[in-house]
Amino acid sequence: MKPAVAALMLWSGLLGLLYLALAGYVVRHRYRAKVAIGDGGDPDLARAIRVHGNFAEYVPLALFLLLLLALAGWGSLHIHILAGTLFVARAAHAIGLAGSEGPSPGRAVGILGTWGVVAAASVMVLATALG
Questions:
Q1: From CA 113, how far away is CA 84, in angstroms rounded?
Q2: Which among 1, 42, 117, 124 has the fewest CB atoms less than 10 Å away?
Q3: Residue ranges of the alpha helices (H) in the chain?
Q4: Residue 35: what are its φ and ψ, rounded to 5°?
Q5: What would the pLDDT profile of 55-90 be if each residue is shown by its tens digit?
Q6: How far apart are CA 97 and CA 33, in angstroms?
């Protein structure tokens, strides 16, 4: 197995566990609010749903781009840097958004880190494709 693929597998597994933790966070809020569908007007549940949903919106694309890079022969160091940044960014975003509806340092780190990874990986994929 290519080292870059192994690196991506490591970070994908960690991101998968973070995804499940965020899903559990939603379930815990649903149970507390006694709401099975939607947010029932509960602001804490609505925020938990957005924390989980935002992760689900960004991480699949980022992982797909990183997979393309790993398969194209980019080194494991590149994958570790990008995927590690993604993991830290998504954790920071979750903590920041879970704690506040408004702006927060965690949300800022999460947004900038995630967008930075997607932008860098996109440019790297394009550069590889165009030779």
A1: 10
A2: 1
A3: 3-33, 43-71, 76-99, 105-130
A4: -125, 120
A5: 999 999 999 999 999 999 999 999 999 999 999 999
A6: 19
d(CA 7, CA 67): 10
Structure tokens at 121: 């990986």
CA separation for the pair 106, 88 (Å, rounded): 10
pLDDT, position 100: 81
Query: How far apart, in whole angstroms, are the C-alpha atoms of residue 7 and residue 98?
Result: 29
Length of the chain: 131
Q: How far apart are CA 130 and CA 124, in angstroms?
A: 10
Instruction: State both tokens at 127.
Output: 């550069």
CA distance 131 to 126: 8
Per-residue tokens: 122: 């996109």
CB count in 10 Å sphere of residue 13: 10
Tell whether pTM > 0.85. yes
